[in-house]
């Protein structure tokens, strides 16, 4: 597929999203619409749209790419099973709490339970974590667009990033969450369709029926799921399960982004129905993503296609786009492009809205009654939206200049450091009902804990006899934060027990 054709498809795609945005926000673009979607979102639309937000371009490219590693194969599915357990815990424990307190920002719980400084600390952790995580996810699709489209037009990488964020801003700044509920449903449709169609196209090229492909993948050297052999390694089963549970609780249940969508449902019953449905679809779709990875490596072996090299380093992130855009034909290329674009931009548009919401509510108090009728309040929200778009731009450009690791590993490694303190804060609030904290000391605890975790992770093989930390590092981080909060705790008053 030529770069010009790809560019035309992208223009049409975003034209459709901007049209939907204008139609959805035509009647109202106030803060209630932007922050809460007027609290009338349909649970089934939220459930389906959340798939696109939760998966992202990381799942679309990096996860299939890593299947070729003999030490990984389908190891990621262990993590997905942990994710599923985490989603169920969120539905039964955290969602009822958020609905009972009628929260716009979920960090309002920390304010009422631990104090104002703790609240600002939690919101700041989210802003940093989500900005970095979403920037990395967007980076993944931008480098693909740069390699296969914009390099042909001699467009600098920084300008490609700026164009991408400008397009996202164009269809989110007015309607916010209400727009995203609709656009993410459309984008998830493209994402899911692309997975199944990609499997079909690869199977067709390998002369395999669907059932033959299933058996071939099952018998291949790429499909090992469970790793019980060596608990010292990062792929060990219980590490992945526990890591999956706690990463999900922290990165979904304690993250304004995905919880904001859940809180737009009419009531707790519909929000839980959404989470249960979403969990089932999430597990199923990840099985197909891993299967795509195995089929890609089989296809590359048969056709003599090597993993693309970038700056002398093999980049498995590029295997899927390399095959889809150059070896399968025009229709599979279009399908891949739509799926990748949908996966990544569904994540980024949602994150940008959540970042704007958190800053406007947690730091500017826009949800408070006395502030809701202030002049220029919507204009202020627009400026915040622009500011976070620019901040994400800077993070992507900086990351591009230093990145030398697999994107999927980098995201979860950073999440282990930044989301761990949130896990500790909420655990303390939920389980230590008779205690609160010396509020002004909380930021210190939330900085020290990730620093200790970094030291533990860096020297784990020396300290713990060749033990390698993986996703379970977030548990250690949360535990250290919890212990630190216990050290600075004091008896709770009646109005701080939730």
Order of helices and strands: HHHHHHHHHHHHEEHHHHHEHHHE
Structural class: mainly alpha
- Low-confidence segments, ≥5 residues, pLDDT <50? none
- Number of extended strands: 4
Which oligomeric form is depicted? single chain
Strand content: under 5%
Number of helices: 20
The CA-CA distance between the termini, in Å, is 57 Å
Report on this structure:
This protein has 498 residues and is an all-alpha fold. Helix content is 72%, strand content 2%. The protein has 20 helices and four strands. The longest helix is centred in the middle third of the chain and has 36 residues, at 268-303.
Topology:
Elements: H1 3-24, H2 31-36, H3 43-66, H4 76-100, H5 108-114, H6 116-148, H7 157-172, H8 177-205, H9 210-219, H10 237-253, H11 256-262, H12 268-303, E1 309-310, E2 313-314, H13 319-326, H14 330-363, H15 377-402, H16 407-418, H17 420-431, E3 435-437, H18 442-458, H19 460-463, H20 473-487, E4 489-491
Antiparallel strand pairs: 1-2, 3-4
